[in-house]
Amino acid sequence: SLMGWGRGPGTMIFPDLLIYFPYTLILFLLTLYFCWPALGIASARLEIKPYDKMRWLYVDEVDVCADQRKKGAGKAIMRKLIEIARDTGCEEVWLGTEVDNQAVNALYRSLDPDDVAQVIGYAYKMD
Length: 127
Hints:
By secondary structure, this protein is α+β, with helices and mostly antiparallel strands. Helices cover about 20% and strands about 25% of the residues.
């Protein structure tokens, strides 16, 4: 269960955030604090594809504290998210980032992804 993830070493889950996101299956915020200060945060949500009912984890944000960068914190956060995906029966983890963000692209490639795709993003402002 969602609450169970918060009981593992080094994690805190805030399930009360679910009330703010009624259109997602499950949203959680993961804070890794193996030492103080915190390593960083990640937000992600579990999704189910409507056409084949495949469960997957969408990683919305991984933010490593500035003083923890280049120390393995980002990799620790991503490994925890991948572990959560496995533990909840997900078939894949998906995330995106900017093409020119060399540091984070190096991190994600170091985790041996099965696919690296070029994606174009569109934004529409609501005036």
